[in-house]
């Protein structure tokens, strides 16, 4: 099993190297930025978005920033939520499951949901290669699909919510999926000026913490609190910017 996992990671690293080489050769800097741009959870609707994540799924885990961010958010969740092996968890917008792999030893069972078939294919390969028995992947888009019948003790998302237009509707769906006293953890961008994704992005330019807390309260959540889990840097010289990633923790 471990040899299969190493081979899988080697294939991803080689594909990532080729992707970067192609980006260096392109004369369209906007195209290069799109190829290498960071988007950690999946857009949960939209053909263009789904195609982006499908195309980049094989090289997703080769980005050290994505790896470090997932580990940092996992540590912060463990600091803020009393995890246990009795918990049933859901990661929404899971991508290749980097965050869930970090939390997996601390939880009873994890359902991983995404709308990108490419991401889910890579995720299933990883689960099989590592012989993990308490993780299950499924295609799910809460914007368009009916709510699953399951209810969860913990729901978490990483860099997913800013891709979903109707934040209020999403929060209501996540509230409905939680068991009584269950925890919601949202890791996402603090409000920024639009430079993180650049022109053409049609999602949210991060979130104001107070506004998001008010939306969570309107959806029924209580005890909302924020910490800063990670920070990303983009640009060089005078154009360099820091983009903090918050963790919102709230309860049903």
Q: Cα-atom Rg, whole angstroms?
A: 18 Å
CATH fold group? Rossmann fold
What's the CATH class label?
Alpha Beta
CATH H-level superfamily title: Vaccinia Virus protein VP39
State the shape.
globular
Let me know the largest β-sheet: 7 strands, mixed
Tally of alpha and pi helices = 8
The percent of residues in helical segments reads 40-55%
Give the number of domains: 1
Distance between the termini: 39 Å
Order of strands across the widest beta sheet? 3-2-1-4-5-7-6
> β content, as a range?
15-25%
Write up this protein:
The chain has a seven-stranded mixed beta sheet. By secondary structure, the chain is an alpha/beta fold. Helix 1 (2-25) packs antiparallel against helix 2, helix 1 (2-25) packs antiparallel against helix 6 and helix 7 crosses helix 8 (209-219). It has helices spanning 2-25, 29-36, 47-56, 64-80, 98-103, 117-130, 167-177, 209-219; strands at residues 88-92, 109-114, 135-139, 152-158, 178-189, 222-234, 241-251. The termini are far apart. It has one domain (2-251): Vaccinia Virus protein VP39 (Rossmann fold). It has eight helices and seven strands. The model is unreliable at 1-6 and 11-42 (pLDDT under 50).
């Amino acid at each position: 099993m471990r040899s299969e996992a190493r081979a899988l990671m080697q294939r991803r690293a080689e594909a990532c190297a080729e992707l970067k080489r192609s980006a260096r050769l392109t004369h369209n800097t906007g195209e290069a930025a799109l190829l290498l741009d960071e988007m950690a959870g999946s857009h949960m609707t939209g053909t263009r978005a789904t195609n982006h994540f499908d195309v980049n799924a094989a090289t997703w885990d080769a980005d050290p920033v994505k790896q470090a961010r997932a580990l940092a958010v996992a540590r912060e969740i463990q600091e803020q939520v009393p995890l246990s092996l009795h918990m049933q968890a859901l990661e929404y917008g899971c991508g290749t499951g980097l965050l869930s792999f970090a939390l997996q030893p601390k939880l009873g069972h994890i359902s991983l949901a995404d709308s990108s078939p490419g991401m889910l294919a890579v995720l299933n390969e990883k689960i099989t290669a590592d012989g993990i028995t308490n993780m299950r992947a499924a295609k799910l888009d809460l914007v368009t699909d009916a709510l699953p019948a399951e209810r969860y003790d913990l729901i978490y998302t990483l860099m997913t919510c800013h891709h979903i237009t109707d934040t209020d509707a999403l929060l209501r769906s996540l509230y409905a999926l939680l068991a009584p006293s269950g925890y919601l953890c949202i890791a996402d961008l603090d409000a920024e000026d639009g430079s993180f994704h650049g022109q053409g992005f049609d999602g949210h330019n991060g979130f104001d913490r107070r506004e998001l807390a008010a939306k969570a309260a309107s959806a029924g959540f209580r005890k909302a609190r924020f910490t800063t889990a990670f920070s990303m840097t983009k640009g060089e010289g005078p154009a360099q910017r820091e983009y903090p990633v918050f963790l919102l923790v709230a309860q049903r």
